[in-house]
Amino acid sequence: MTEIIFFINQVVISGLVLGCIYALGAIGITLIFGILRFAHFAHSELMTGGAFIAFLLASAFAAWGIVTPIPTGFVVLPIAMVLAAILALGIDKGFYAPLRKRGAKPVTLLIASIGVTLMVQGLIRLFFGAGSYSFFENEPKEIFRIDTSALGSTRPLVITEPQVLMILVTLVSVIALHFFLTRSRLGKAMRAMADNADLAQVSGINTALVVRVTWVIAGALGCMAGTMLALDVTLKPDLAFNIILPIFAAAIVGGLGQAYGAIAGGLLIGFAETLAVFNWTMLFRPLNAILPDWAQLPSTLALVPTEYKLTVAFVILVITLLVRPTGIFKGASS
Fold it and tell me: Which keywords label this protein (predicted)?
């Protein structure tokens, strides 16, 4: 049972947390692709920028002496999401909208998004430096250690308070997004425009409003994903830049343009990465008692070393493109 608890701590909890972050990031990417038909590489900077906005708000709360019952990063998250949504609208109005008016092709918008990535990341480094920050400099990070001795285990089940909250917040956000896309008139308009933008326009749908709402949702969810990632690890200028490719892989695996596919793809990539770097010897160690000496399990039995964890997403991506190019939920062809 000790080995199973270790597996839950290292794979199930870690995979779920990482999957939630990937899923929220992938939703923004897939919505932008579905509506605007281009791959937005600067989405990583929306995540990082949103996390820094949340950090500034949390620092202000600490300076004002405001004490909250839960981590301050979650308390200020709604305000940070609003500001990140405004930032996303500003980036679209300043860079992408003028290009769309000139009839720029998707590849042009993609290249422009890479330029926006470098620009925003440079601004973050200019104002915050290249160091790392923590949301828990002024407050403790609570760690729950659940005793499992009744199950015959010597290891506790370990999960932090931010991890519990980020799983709950992700669940609420996904449910809210589901009802928005399926029940609201604007959500149905977004789905219609994603299916056929020209037909949606001639049908009387306000496509300009749909584009604005898309950026609002992408910016808000990007801020949420970036803040949750910073709460789980540390905040730094390249916080989300290092995981943007797995997030893109999650969006493609789930099906480009499909919000539900992005959620499934994010969880799939998250669990796949944690399973790949898990040391399986820890789980199967009891087998050494019955195995001959020449067949003893090695001390480390991981599918890939931890430093190559990101390659797992690309392996899954390549397999998906070969077997099912439209992704799990049959999105736009990749």
Answer: Amino-acid transport, Cell inner membrane, Cell membrane, Membrane, Transmembrane, Transmembrane helix, Transport
